[in-house]
C-alpha cells in the first residue's frame, strides 16, 4: 500500500498540473462516454452533492468532479466532456484525450448506451488505445429490454478484454458491481487485455516501425502505439507533446515510480 | 515659442512624414517585386510539373505585366541563380525549385484551410490563398499544416509538397486526351484560369467523381458520372485531369444520401471527397463509414434537415451534408 | 543505434505518412467501426421487433410536417404560461415577506436612533434592491428551469432544434441556436453558456451575440406591465388580457425575427462563412431522473443565476437610493440626470427617466420598473406597484406617456444591451474583449436605431 502511494506521488504531480486536486484521495477515476448515454446521471448517482463544477483550464468546457468512497477507498471522479470520438480535435475531445493521456487516471469508466452499442464502441476502442485501465459501464439496460435488445455483457467484456458491467444509472441498478470492477482495475488487481484495432497491413507496418522509435525516445511510455497512430495522423497536440519533451518527462517519471515500486517489492520479499 | 524652434519642429515633422511615406512606398515596391518573383517561380514550377516549360510569353501572360517588367524579373532570377535559360525557355535551378515549392506549399495549405476551416466557397479559395501565400513563412506553414492534420492534397486534388520539398509526380491526363467510354476518376481540377475553374464548379464537376467520356468533338466534350451529363468546351475540359478509376469504385449504382426516399434503406459507400475537414471527421465519428446500414427516418416540413437511422442511433443532417454521403440503395424488401 | 531525438521521430512519422494512402484518418475510423460492428454483433441481439416502436411513433408526430411546429409551439407556450402564471403568487408572497422584514428592520434601526441615511441606505437601498430582485427572479426561474430541464432530459429539445433548423440554416446559423434561445427566456447569461452545445466556433459566436434578443425573465415583468396598461385598453375589456398577452407574444416574435436577421447579417459580414457541419443526434426518449432534474435546474442553473443577480442588485439598490435621496437645488440627482437625458430620450420616443432607469438597471433588468416609478413619483424609494390603476394614472396622466412611449419602451427593453451578468458571461465564454464589446454595443445601437425610426415614422 505504501509502495503504491509512492507510485502515485509522481502521478499526483502530473495531475496537479492538469488542475485536479488529488489531496486526500486514494484514486482518480475518469468518466468518459458519448453524449446522451446517461453519463451525468451516473456521475450524479456516484457523487451526489459532493461535486463541484467549473471550467477546464483555459477552455470554456464544463468540468465537473466529485468524490465518493467505496470499500474504504476514496475516489475522485472526473467527468470528461461527452464525445463521440477522440480524433476530431474539437475542444471537448482534446480535453478528454489530454486527461486520459497526461492525467493518467487510475481507472476510466466508459459509459455506453446499451441500445446503440456499435456506435458507442467507436469511443471505447479509441480509449482502449490510450489506456488499458478501463471499465465499461453498459448503461440503459432497462431501455434495451424495452426495445427488445438482448445485451450480452459477458461477451462484450471478453471481446474488449476489460470488465463490462450492465447498469441502470437512473435507478442505481448494477452500480455496486460497477464499483467493484473499478476498484479492481484501479488497484491493478484486475488484469486487462484491451482489444486493439489492427487496421490494414500498410498501417500496421508504419505503426510497428514508429513504435520502437518512440519507445527508445521515451522509455516506459505506456502507449507508444497510440502515439504512433496519432503521429501518422498528424496530430499537432501529440507532436507538440513529443517535441516539448512533455511526453518524455511523463514516461520517465512513470518508469521511476515503477522501479521504486518493484524495488520495494524486492525489499519486502528479502525480508 | 521662438520661431526658430517652431521651424525646426516643423522641419522634423516634415522629415518624418517624408521618411514614412517614402519608406512605405519602398516597402510596397519591394513587396510587389517579391510577390511577382514568387508567382513567377510558382508558374514555372507548375509548367515543369506538367512536363512543359515556361517562356517569356507565358510569364507575361500569367503575371499580366509588360515584357520589360518580365525581362527584368528573369534577369533578377538569373542573378539570384533561381533559373537558367535554355534557348527561349526557362529551367528552374534546384534553389529555384526549393523556393517555388515553399510558395506552393503555402498556397495549397492555405487553400485547404480556406476550404475546410473557413468554409469559403470553392471558387473563392484560390484567390484567397493567392493573397496569403506571400505572407506565410515556412515555419508558419508548418504550424498550419500541423493544425490541419497534415493534409496531403489541396481541395483541387493537387499534392501539397512536404516541408522537405517532396512532391509526388503529377497524376492524371487532361479529359481531352482521355479515351472514350473508359471509366476514370477526376484527380485534379486546374484552378487557373479562374473563369474556367468557376465553370467546372458550376457544372458540378468535383475531385473524386467517377466519369465516363461519351463524346468528344472539337466543339464539345460530353462526359457523365452515370447520372448527370456534363457538356463542356474542350478548353474548359482540358482543365479536368483524369486517372484510371479503381476497379471496384461501384459508383454507377451509387446514390447520394440526400436523394434517398424516406424509409429506403441503403449501405454507406463512403464520403464524397469534397467533404473534408471538420465536417468529414464528424460524420465519420458518428459512424458514416463504409458498410454501415442507413435509412432516412424523419423529415421536417421544410424537407431539410432529415434524420437518418445509423448504427442504432438517429442523426439529423442538412441536405448539403447528406448529399456528400454516397450510398448503395438496398433492394426494397416487400 | 543512438537513441532518436523527438525531431527524428517526427521526421520519420512525416515520411511514413507520405507513403500511406491519402486518407489515413478514414482508414483508421473505418477499421475501428469494422471492429465495433464485429464486437457489437456478438454482444447485442435484437429479439422481436423494434422497428416500429413507441419512440418512433412519437418522433414521427413531433417532427411531422403538419403537427410538428404546432406541438412545439404548444409545448413552449405551456412552459411560459406555467412560468408566468405560476410565479405570480410566490412572487407576491416573497415580496410581502421581504418588505415586511424591511419595515421591521428599518423600525429597529430607527429605535436604536440610527441616522436616517444609514437606515435608508441599508434598508431602503441595498436591502430593497436585493429583495426586489429575489422576489421577481426566483419564482419564475425555479419554475422555468426545472420545466426546461425536463424537456431537455426527455430528449425533446433536440427535436426542437431539428424542427427549427430550416430557419437558422438560412440565417447561416446552427439549429441548436434555437435551444440556446429557449434557455435565454430563463436568463440570457444561462443562454450564453448554453451555446457550448454548438461545435462550430463561428456559429457559436453568432448564437452568443444574438441571445440578448430573447427577452429573459428579468425583462418580462416590464413587457407585461406595459402591455397591460397600454395595449389592454385599446380593445374591448373582455379581450383586454388576451390582447396584452398577444402584445407580449408579438414582442417575442419580433425578438426572434431580430435574432434571425442579425444572425444573417453577422454571417455575411464580421462572421463570414457558410453554415458548417450540422450533425444533430436525436437521442431516444428517456424517462427523466428526478434527482438530476432538481440538481441541474436548481443548483446548476437557478441558484447560479440568482447568485450572480444578487451580487449586482445590492450595489444597484445602493446607487438608486443615493441618486434619489440626495437633492441638489431641491431636486434629486436622479431627476437632474433624467432632465439631462431628456433630449436623447425624446428623440427615440422615450424620456430621460426611462434612459436613466436603463442605465441603473445595467446590473439587473428587473429593477427597471421600480426605478421608473421611483423617479417619477419622487418618493426616494423603490416602490412596489400598489395598483395597476395608480401606475396607469401616473404614466399617462402625469408623465404624458403615449402609445408610442409604450411601443418604444417594449422595443427598447427587447433590443437594448445585455445586463452586466450577461456581459460578463459573454466575456468568460469568448475570452475576447472585442466580441464582448460587439455583443454589448450592437444591441444597444440597434435599440436606439429602431426606436428612433419608429419615433420618426409615428
Distance between the termini of chain C: 87 Å
Number of helices of chain C: 19
Strand order within the widest sheet of chain C?
3-4
| The CATH homologous superfamily of the largest domain in chain B | Winged helix-like DNA-binding domain superfamily/Winged helix DNA-binding domain
Quaternary organisation of the protein chains:
heterotrimer
The average pLDDT score of chain C comes to: 85
- The chain-level structural class of chain B is alpha+beta
Largest sheet entry of chain C: 2 strands, antiparallel
Number of helices of chain B: 10
Low-confidence stretches of chain C: none
Q: Please give the alpha-carbon distance between the first and last residues of chain B.
A: 102 Å
Q: How many structural domains can be distinguished in the coordinates of chain B? A: 3
Q: Return the string of H and E elements of chain C.
A: HHEHHHHHHHHHEHEEHHHHHHH
The stretches of 5 or more residues of chain B where confidence is low (pLDDT under 50) are: none
**Beta strand % of chain B:** 15-25%
Binned strand content of chain C:
under 5%
Radius of gyration of chain C: 27 Å
Number of strands of chain B: 15
Structural class of chain C: mainly alpha
Keyphrases for this structure?
heterotrimer; A: 271 residues; 8 strands; 52% helix; 17% strand; disordered N terminus; B: 334 residues; alpha+beta; Arc Repressor Mutant, subunit A; SH3 type barrels; six-stranded antiparallel β-sheet; globular
Can you describe this structure in just a few lines?
The complex is a heterotrimer of chains A (271), B (334) and C (458). With 334 residues, chain B is of the alpha+beta class.
Topology of this structure?
The complex is a heterotrimer of chains A (271), B (334) and C (458).
Chain A: H1 2-18, E1 27-33, H2 39-47, E2 51-55, E3 62-70, E4 73-79, H3 91-103, E5 107-113, H4 117-130, E6 134-139, H5 141-146, E7 149-151, H6 153-160, E8 164-166, H7 175-187, H8 201-217, H9 224-233, H10 236-243, H11 246-270
Parallel strand pairs in A: 1-4, 1-5, 5-6, 6-8
Antiparallel strand pairs in A: 2-3, 3-4
Helix pairs in contact in A: 1-11, 8-9
Chain B: H1 3-49, E1 54-55, H2 56-63, H3 67-79, E2 83-86, E3 89-92, H4 94-116, H5 122-132, H6 138-147, E4 173-174, E5 184-189, H7 194-203, E6 210-216, E7 221-224, E8 229-232, H8 234-237, E9 240-244, E10 255-256, E11 266-271, H9 277-285, E12 293-299, E13 306-310, E14 313-317, H10 319-322, E15 325-329
Antiparallel strand pairs in B: 1-3, 2-3, 4-9, 5-6, 5-9, 6-7, 7-8, 10-15, 11-12, 11-15, 12-13, 13-14
Helix pairs in contact in B: 1-4, 2-3, 4-5, 4-6, 5-7
Chain C: H1 6-19, H2 24-43, E1 44-46, H3 54-62, H4 68-112, H5 116-154, H6 157-170, H7 177-186, H8 188-194, H9 201-210, H10 220-231, H11 240-268, E2 279-281, H12 290-325, E3 327-328, E4 331-332, H13 333-347, H14 352-360, H15 368-377, H16 388-398, H17 403-415, H18 420-430, H19 433-457
Antiparallel strand pairs in C: 3-4
Amino acid at each position: 500500500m505504501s509502495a503504491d502511494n509512492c507510485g502515485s506521488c509522481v502521478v499526483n504531480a502530473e495531475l496537479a498540473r492538469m488542475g485536479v486536486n488529488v489531496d486526500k484521495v486514494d484514486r482518480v477515476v475518469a468518466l468518459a462516454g458519448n453524449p446522451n448515454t446517461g453519463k451525468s446521471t451516473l456521475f450524479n448517482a456516484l457523487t451526489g452533492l459532493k461535486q463541484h463544477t467549473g471550467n477546464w483550464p483555459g477552455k470554456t468546457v464544463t468540468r465537473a468532479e466529485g468524490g465518493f468512497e467505496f470499500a474504504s477507498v476514496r475516489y475522485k471522479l472526473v467527468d470528461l466532456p461527452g464525445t463521440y470520438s477522440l480524433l476530431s480535435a474539437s475542444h471537448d475531445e482534446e480535453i478528454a484525450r489530454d486527461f486520459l493521456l497526461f492525467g493518467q487516471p487510475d481507472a476510466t469508466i466508459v459509459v455506453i448506451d446499451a441500445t446503440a452499442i456499435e456506435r458507442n464502441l467507436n469511443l471505447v476502442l479509441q480509449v482502449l488505445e490510450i489506456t488499458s485501465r478501463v471499465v465499461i459501464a453498459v448503461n440503459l439496460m432497462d431501455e434495451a429490454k424495452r426495445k427488445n435488445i438482448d445485451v450480452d455483457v459477458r461477451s462484450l467484456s471478453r471481446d474488449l478484454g476489460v470488465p463490462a458491467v450492465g447498469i441502470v444509472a437512473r435507478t442505481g441498478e448494477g452500480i455496486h458491481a460497477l464499483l467493484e470492477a473499478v476498484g479492481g482495475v484501479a488497484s491493478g488487481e484486475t488484469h486487462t487485455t484491451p482489444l486493439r484495432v489492427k487496421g490494414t497491413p500498410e498501417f500496421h507496418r508504419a505503426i510497428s516501425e514508429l513504435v520502437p522509435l518512440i519507445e527508445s525516445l521515451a522509455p516506459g511510455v505506456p502507449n507508444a502505439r497510440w502515439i504512433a497512430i496519432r503521429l501518422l495522423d498528424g496530430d499537432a497536440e501529440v507532436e507538440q507533446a513529443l517535441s516539448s519533451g512533455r511526453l518524455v518527462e511523463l514516461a520517465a517519471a512513470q518508469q521511476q515510480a515503477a522501479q521504486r515500486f518493484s524495488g520495494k517489492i524486492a525489499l519486502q520479499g528479502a525480508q | 515659442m521662438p520661431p526658430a524652434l517652431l521651424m525646426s519642429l516643423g522641419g522634423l515633422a516634415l522629415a518624418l512624414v517624408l521618411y514614412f511615406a517614402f519608406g512605405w512606398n519602398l516597402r510596397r515596391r519591394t513587396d510587389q517585386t517579391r510577390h511577382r518573383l514568387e508567382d513567377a517561380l510558382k508558374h514555372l514550377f507548375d509548367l515543369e510539373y506538367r512536363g512543359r516549360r515556361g517562356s517569356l510569353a507565358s510569364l507575361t501572360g500569367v503575371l499580366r505585366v509588360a515584357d520589360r517588367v518580365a525581362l527584368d524579373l528573369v534577369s533578377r532570377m538569373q542573378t539570384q541563380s533561381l533559373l537558367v535559360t535554355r534557348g527561349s525557355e526557362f529551367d528552374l535551378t534546384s534553389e529555384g525549385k526549393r523556393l517555388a515549392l515553399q510558395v506552393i506549399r503555402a498556397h495549397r495549405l492555405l487553400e485547404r484551410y480556406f476550404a475546410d476551416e473557413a468554409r469559403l466557397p470553392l471558387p473563392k479559395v484560390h484567390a484567397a490563398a493567392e493573397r496569403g501565400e506571400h505572407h506565410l513563412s515556412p515555419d508558419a506553414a508548418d504550424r498550419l499544416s500541423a493544425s490541419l492534420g497534415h493534409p496531403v492534397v489541396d481541395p483541387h486534388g493537387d499534392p501539397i509538397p512536404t516541408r522537405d520539398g517532396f512532391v509526388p509526380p503529377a497524376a492524371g491526363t487532361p479529359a481531352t486526351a482521355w479515351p472514350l467510354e473508359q471509366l476514370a476518376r477526376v484527380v485534379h481540377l486546374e484552378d487557373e484560369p479562374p473563369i474556367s475553374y468557376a465553370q467546372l464548379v458550376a457544372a458540378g464537376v468535383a475531385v473524386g467523381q467517377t466519369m465516363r467520356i461519351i463524346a468528344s468533338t472539337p466543339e464539345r466534350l460530353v462526359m457523365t458520372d452515370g447520372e448527370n451529363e456534363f457538356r463542356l468546351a474542350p478548353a474548359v475540359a482540358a482543365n479536368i485531369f483524369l486517372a484510371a478509376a479503381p476497379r471496384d469504385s461501384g459508383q454507377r449504382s451509387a446514390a447520394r444520401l440526400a436523394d434517398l426516399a424516406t424509409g429506403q434503406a441503403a449501405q454507406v459507400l463512403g464520403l464524397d471527397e469534397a467533404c473534408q475537414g471538420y465536417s468529414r471527421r464528424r460524420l465519420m465519428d458518428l459512424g458514416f463509414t463504409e458498410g454501415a446500414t442507413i435509412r432516412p427516418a424523419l423529415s421536417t416540413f421544410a424537407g431539410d434537415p432529415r434524420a437518418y437511422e445509423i448504427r442504432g442511433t438517429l442523426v439529423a443532417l442538412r441536405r448539403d451534408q447528406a448529399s456528400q454521403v454516397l450510398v448503395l440503395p438496398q433492394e426494397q424488401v416487400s | 543505434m543512438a537513441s532518436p531525438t523527438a525531431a527524428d521521430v517526427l521526421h520519420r512519422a512525416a515520411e511514413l505518412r507520405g507513403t500511406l494512402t491519402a486518407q489515413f484518418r478514414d482508414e483508421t475510423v473505418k477499421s475501428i467501426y469494422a471492429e465495433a460492428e464485429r464486437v457489437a454483433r456478438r454482444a447485442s441481439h435484437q429479439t422481436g421487433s423494434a422497428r416500429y416502436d413507441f419512440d418512433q411513433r412519437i418522433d414521427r408526430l413531433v417532427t411531422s410536417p403538419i403537427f410538428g411546429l404546432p406541438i412545439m409551439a404548444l409545448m413552449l407556450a405551456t412552459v411560459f404560461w406555467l412560468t408566468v402564471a405560476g410565479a405570480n403568487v410566490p412572487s407576491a408572497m416573497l415580496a410581502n415577506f421581504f418588505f415586511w422584514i424591511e419595515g421591521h428592520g428599518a423600525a429597529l434601526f430607527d429605535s436604536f436612533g440610527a441616522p436616517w441615511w444609514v437606515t435608508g441606505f441599508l434598508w431602503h437601498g441595498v436591502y430593497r434592491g436585493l429583495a426586489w430582485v429575489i422576489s421577481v427572479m426566483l419564482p419564475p426561474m425555479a419554475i422555468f428551469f426545472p420545466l426546461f430541464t425536463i424537456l431537455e432530459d426527455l430528449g425533446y429539445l433536440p427535436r426542437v432544434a431539428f424542427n427549427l433548423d430550416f430557419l437558422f440554416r438560412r440565417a447561416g446559423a446552427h439549429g441548436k441556436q434555437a435551444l440556446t434561445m429557449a434557455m435565454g427566456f430563463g436568463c440570457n447569461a444561462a443562454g450564453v453558456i448554453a451555446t457550448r452545445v454548438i461545435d462550430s466556433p463561428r456559429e457559436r459566436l453568432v448564437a452568443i451575440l444574438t441571445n440578448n434578443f430573447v427577452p429573459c425573465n428579468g425583462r418580462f415583468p416590464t413587457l407585461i406591465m406595459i402591455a397591460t396598461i397600454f395595449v389592454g385598453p385599446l380593445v374591448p375589456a373582455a379581450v383586454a388580457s388576451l390582447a396584452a398577452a398577444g402584445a407580449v407574444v408579438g414582442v417575442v416574435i419580433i425578438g426572434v425575427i431580430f435574432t434571425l436577421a442579425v444572425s444573417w447579417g453577422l454571417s455575411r459580414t464580421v462572421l463570414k462563412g457558410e453554415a458548417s457541419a450540422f450533425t444533430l443526434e436525436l437521442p431516444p426518449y428517456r424517462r427523466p431522473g428526478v434527482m438530476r432534474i432538481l440538481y441541474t435546474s436548481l443548483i446548476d442553473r437557478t441558484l447560479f443565476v440568482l447568485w450572480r443577480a444578487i451580487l449586482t442588485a445590492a450595489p444597484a439598490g445602493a446607487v438608486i437610493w443615493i441618486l434619489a435621496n440626495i437633492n441638489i437645488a431641491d431636486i434629486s440627482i436622479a431627476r437632474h440626470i433624467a432632465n439631462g437625458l431628456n433630449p436623447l430620450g425624446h428623440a427615440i420616443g422615450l424620456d430621460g427617466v426611462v434612459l436613466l432607469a436603463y442605465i441603473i438597471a445595467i446590473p439587473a433588468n428587473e429593477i427597471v420598473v421600480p426605478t421608473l416609478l421611483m423617479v417619477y413619483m419622487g418618493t426616494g424609494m423603490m416602490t412596489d406597484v400598489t395598483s395597476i390603476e395608480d401606475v396607469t394614472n401616473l404614466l399617462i396622466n402625469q408623465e404624458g406617456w403615449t402609445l408610442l412611449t409604450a411601443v418604444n419602451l417594449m422595443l427598447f427593453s427587447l433590443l437594448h444591451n445585455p445586463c452586466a451578468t450577461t456581459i460578463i458571461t459573454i466575456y468568460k465564454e469568448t475570452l475576447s474583449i472585442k466580441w464582448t464589446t460587439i455583443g454589448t454595443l450592437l444591441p444597444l445601437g440597434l435599440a436606439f436605431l429602431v426606436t428612433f425610426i419608429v419615433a420618426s415614422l409615428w
